[in-house]
Amino acid sequence: MVRRHYDPVTYMGIKVRGGFSSYGREMTAGTLLKQVELCRHTAQVLLDSVLLRGIPSAIFGTLLYWLMGLRPSADAFITFLFVFCTYTALVSARVEPQQH
After folding, report:
1. Exposed, middle or buried, 83 (CB in 10 Å: 0-12/13-18/19+)?
2. What sign has the CA pseudo-torsion 27, 31, 36, 41?
3. Which of 18, 28, 59, 64 is placed for a possible disulfide with 6 were both Cys, Cβ 3.0 to 4.6 Å?
4. So where are the chain's domains?
């Protein structure tokens, strides 16, 4: 059996040999980076959109609605809360500049 020599690849400070482990094969093929990127993006969407923007705006909208004395019906309240949370999410969204 002939062992091939692969140059070590460094990823996040860890040296991995390209052909002797599944981690190294995934990393050299680029699939591991896609999986990590997908997990990072999912966590960012969950934390940023839901926990940092959705829940606080829902709490603030609930307090604001009843303190202002708007219509005390469930359908009007749900409509207000949906519009308020959607508006808050759209206003606070980051817009990345396009790179040429």
Report:
1. exposed
2. positive
3. 18
4. 8-91
